[in-house]
Amino acid sequence: AQTVTQSQPEMSVQEAETVTLSCTYDTSENNYYLFWYKQPPSRQMILVIRQEAYKQQNATENRFSVNFQKAAKSFSLKISDSQLGDTAMYFCAFTTMEYGNKLVFGAGTILRVKS
Amino acid sequence: EAGVTQSPTHLIKTRGQQATLRCSPISGHTSVYWYQQALGLGLQFLLWYDEGEERNRGNFPPRFSGRQFPNYSSELNVNALELEDSALYLCASSLGASGGYNEQFFGPGTRLTVL
User: Which of A52, B6, B18, B105 has its CA 20 to 30 A from that of B88?
Assistant: First the structure.
C-alpha cells in the first residue's frame, strides 16, 4: 500500500525565519508525483508545489522549495522568509498514474508563524 | 474565472437521514474528485468521476455514492448517516483523465454534521 507520513504534527517559526516540514512516503512505483498543499483556516486547499519523480531537480516556487530524495523516499518542504500568512495546515500528498489520479495525503503538519 | 464551488457550506443532519452535497467544477474541467476530511482520520479519497463515469473509488461503504451530470457537476450522496460521517467534504476538479496527471483544484468544502 502507498503511504505518506508526516512526523511533525505541529511546528512554529518566527516571522522571516526558515522552516522545514518533513514528509516520507512508501511506494513501489517508479513514476509518481508528490505535492505539498496548504490549508489555511479558511479550509481552502491550495497547491503549494509539485514534484515529478522522474525529475531530479528540486522544485521551487518563490519562497517554497523542496528537498526530494528519491532513494530515501523523502520529500521535505522548506519555507524561507516565513510570513504570517503562511500559518496553515500543510499536507504532503502523493499519486501515481496507477492510482487513477487519487491523491494520498499525509496526516498534516500545523505550522504557526509568530510575529 | 470561477473556481470550484460547493454547496451547501454547512449541512446538519440526524443519524439515519440522507445527505446530498453538490460540486461545480472549473469550466473546462471534466474530472471531479471527492475527499473526506474527518477529525483524526485526515484526508481520504472517496470517488473520482470523469466524463460522467465513476473511474475510481476509495475504501468507503456503498452508502457513499455519487454521480456526475452532463455539465460535469457532481453530487455526493451519503445514505443512512452515521455519527462518524461528520466531516469536511472536499471536492476537486481537473482536466480530463487522459494524458498524465492533471492538477486538482479544490473547492471550499461542505461541513457535514451528523447529530
Answer: A52
Q: Is B60 domain-assigned?
A: yes
Say what percent of chain B tops pLDDT 90: 85
pLDDT at A14: 97
If one counts the domains in chain B, the total is: 1
Instruction: Give the closest-approach CA distance of A42 to chain B in angstroms.
Output: 8
Measure the CA–CA gap between A79 and B67, rounded to whole angstroms.
Answer: 39
> At the fourth CATH level, which superfamily is domain A3-114?
Immunoglobulins (2.60.40.10)
Lowest mean pLDDT among A43-57, A77-91, B54-68, B96-110: B96-110
**Structure-derived torsion over alpha carbons of residues A59, A60, A66, A71, reported in degrees to the nearest 10:** 20
Residues with Cβ within 8 Å of A4's Cβ and at least 6 positions away in sequence, in order, are A23, A24, A25, A26, A92, A93, A94, A104, A105, A106
Each domain of chain A, given as residue ranges in start order, spans: 3-114
**B74–chain A nearest CA distance, Å:** 17
- For residue B4, what pLDDT is reported? 96
What CATH number has the domain bearing residue B79? Answer: 2.60.40.10
Residues of A with Cβ-Cβ distance to B31 under 8 angstroms: 101
Grid cell at residue A106: 499525509
Backbone angles phi, psi at B107, to 5 degrees: -85, 180
